[in-house]
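Quick question about two entries, pasted in order.
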Amino acid sequence: MEYGKSFYDHFMHPLERNGLADARRYLIPKAKGHVLEIGPGSGINLRYYLFDQIDSLSLFDQRIQPTIASFSFPETLPLVQTIGTVESLPYEDDSFDTVIACLVFCSVPDAQKGLKEIQRVLKPGGSYLFIEHILSDGPVLASAMQLITPIWKQIAKGCHLNRRTDQRIDELELIPIETHYFMRRSFVWGIANK
């Protein structure tokens, strides 16, 4: 089994059972129109899409995993898979009705630049759907997260447990529609519109 998928399954499966899957079930069906998913990873979000409300789906990642290639997409769905980095998206301004990023910005070297790219490619009135883990505001958990981040980055492909991606999202020129915190405020999910 591929390292990325086995790592995800091993460490994240309990978190999926304790809130992440519920957030995905709520958010992903809201995707509509021309959709960009950044960092689809093993394709865990694909089962939640309502493909009849999607005009096209663009999957953007540093690499496309075999699990995505084996997914049964509708034959009529225009599907584009692109490899690159989120800090430099290869799309025109105002290209997408929906942009999705789940558990992505913990590992992006310049998270703020990547988030601004999302804002750039999102059409006016479009929606950014997100799930991110963040530094908890609980002092004990936050201290533990700060302590293990240097080691965690080495074993989890650059993942920073101690980022406040929620604050970076708030700095964008987007309108927050919903924001929800869970797992002792160490995860955030929500919707922001352009």
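Here is the second entry:
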Amino acid sequence: MEVSWGKSESKPGKRGRKGGSPNPERNQQRAWSRAKGVIRRKCLTIGADHLVTLTYRENVQDRTRVLEHMERFHRMLKRAGTSLQYVTVLEYQKRGAIHFHIAVKGFQDVRLLRRCWYKVVGNGQGQVNVRGPRPGSSPVKLARYLSKYIGKDLNALPREAGEHRYFCSLGITVPTERFELALARPSEGVAGELFSLMMKETLRRVGVQCNLTHWMGGGGSYGWISGYEDSSHRWTVGPVESLQESPPPVP
């Protein structure tokens, strides 16, 4: 089974005015679901296992200023020889202050991060915190936890039309996922149930909290699920314990 996602080609026709949708709440919910899904997939792709949090000492609420600081911070890291693949989400505290959550992979030099951040905001005018992997957790679980954590407040963030909810480094290519299913019963007559299972598994893996009709709907987005025949695999009837490795295909 193969699963993919992406953007469909734009269709000609009259485009509505930004912010003029008759159902803004539904569109907002869809956008929030897509954003969480992208964050989760990107985190899984880079194998994120550390969470870097950058904060301000003062109550900084200017989004433009914050984004400029974020860009300068990454430029300084790159000049220092540390080029990170990252997924970043802005979090707004109750008082309105903004700070960063950055999901990255591998050990982080806290002294270097702090030095670069202080050059941006001023010495002692901010703080850097790095949270590493938890004992007993796998990289996949950690990546899922991080994506869930940094995406939990997306729906509550103040956002104007066209403003991004998250930021990612360039070059993060999300691969197509493939799954192998073993049915514990005859395969005849289960096409509908198999499709339902594929759809539920896809939404669980991708993390998009909406149904497939939304995914395949408007807005230029699409989702598809397709099965493929592989001669190296076979249908097996019986309990999972009875499954044996299939013989190699005859050329």
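Reply: The chain has a mean pLDDT of 69. Residues 24-46 form the longest helix (23 residues). Hope that helps.
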